[in-house]
Amino acid sequence: MRAAVIHAPKDIRVEEVPDPVVQRPGDAIVRVLLSCICGSDLWAYRGDSAREPGQRIGHEFLGVVEEVGAEVTGVTAGDLVVAPFVWSDGVCDYCTEGLPTSCEHGGFWGSVGSDGGQGEAVRVPYADGTLVKLPAAAASDERLLSALLTLSDVLGTGHHAAVGAGVRPGSTVAVVGDGAVGLCGVLAAKRLGAERIIALGRHQVRTDIARTFGATDVVAERGEAAVAAVRELTRGQGAHAVIEAVGTEESMRTAVGIARDGGSIGYVGVPHGSGTGLDLAVMFGRNIALRGGVAPVRSYIPELLPDVLDGVIDPSPVFDLTVDLEAVPAGYQAMDDRTALKVLVGN
After folding, report:
1. Residue burial 149-172, b: 16+ Cβ < 10 Å; e: rest
2. Which residues contact 141 (CB under 8 A, 6 or more apart)?
3. Rounded Cα–Cα distance for residues 200 and 210 (Å)
4. Spatial separation of the C-alpha atoms in residues 172 and 307, rounded to whole Å
5. Of 15, 167, 184, 319, which sits with the fewest C-beta atoms within 10 Å of its C-beta?
6. Looking at the predicted structure, is the pLDDT value of residue 212 above 70?
């Protein structure tokens, strides 16, 4: 089959690789219909996170089950399914406590020895604990199908940030980052009842989406100027809840600066660059809480799926460029050049 692999920074290729096969009784083989490129994939593309030459890449996909192992009972051949970006057994202590990203038998798509989501098919370990069945009719609705794909990562990650930040009805929320995760954070904050949502971003196409998703204000400044602007909008107090969706030292410093005393920061930006931007003495003195990390999206899918199916929320606008599998390298370049927000890959 064909799949995207990474050989070196800025060197993504689509090559022939072995077809996936059932190796264990709990496996399933999924033929990929849609996948996408994540902002976190760019760290490998840019050389900021290490990869082995020839390693698979991509961790967001949905598709149709082609084959299942003898012990799989939750899905059967022909089922339309979405896969969270981490596979998990669904039964260990971490999974039953709602943290499948720490599953004792889990792993990430695209890690050494596993299939990546940007390919024609994927072997899914622990299919019963990992895959979520979708209505078959969704396969014929392109917009809905792309909206459902966000359940594999960015929608659940934005929701995780909103939950970690303590978004509640009537609260004021600030979102640091105008990428797909930040935009989904806006959508999640609106869904959870935030009264005011301040989106921090400098790209009008993206902030226009943020307004569509529920942002009431946009701040285009960065650094100290952004902190001053948010405080001006909030009578000098800052936001009850801050979503940090970038992962740099500057973005975390901004998040602390715009948080209200007694507020919370939900951080989901994959950390990269130097330092953390955290001044624990400041956070201690102002009673600012910090929660977040790798989003346990598998635990959130049952809650979010009905709202996506019913059209209560529609995250599909985060996809602004569609390519076929062979054009995945061009998709990476478009996202790296910031001419695309998030690239959808259709097989």
Report:
1. bbbbbbbbbbbbbbbbbbbeeebb
2. none
3. 10
4. 23
5. 15
6. yes
Give the three-class secondary structure for 21.
coil
Q: Phi/psi of residue 259, each to 5°?
A: -75, 140
The helix/strand/coil state of 73 is coil
Q: Determine the pLDDT at residue 277.
A: 66
Label residues 84-95 b or e (16+ Cβ within 10 Å = b). bbbbbbbebebb
Give yes or no for a contact between 241 and 169, defined as CB atoms under 8 angstroms apart.
no
Residue with tokens 């969270």: 84
Instruction: Based on the fold, state whether residues 19 and 149 are members of the same structural domain.
Output: yes
> What kind and span of H or E run contains 293?
none
Q: Which candidate, 340, 29, 18, places its Cα nearest to that of 5?
A: 18
Sign of CA dihedral 9, 38, 246, 106: negative
- 6 and 88, same domain (yes or no): yes
At residue 262, the 3 state secondary structure works out as: strand
**Does pLDDT of 87 surpass 80?**
yes
Query: pLDDT tens across 238-259, in order?
Result: 999 999 999 999 999 999 999 9
CATH of the domain at 193: 3.40.50.720
Question: Does 130 have pLDDT greater than 80?
Answer: yes
For 248-301, the pLDDT digits (tens) are 999 999 999 999 999 999 999 888 765 666 888 999 999 999 999 999 999 999
The pLDDT value recorded for residue 347 is 86
What is the rounded end-to-end Cα distance, in angstroms, of the chain? 12
For residues 339 and 318, what is the distance between their CA atoms, to the nearest angstrom?
13
Assess whether 134 and 189 both reside in one domain: no
**Rounded CA gap, 241 and 219, in Å?**
16
Q: Show the domain range for 97.
A: 2-153+296-346
Give the residue among 324, 343, 344 at the shortest CA–CA distance from 333.
Answer: 343
CB-side neighbour CA atoms (13 Å) of 97: 8
Query: Considering 250, 272, 292, which residue would you say is the last residue of a domain?
Result: 292
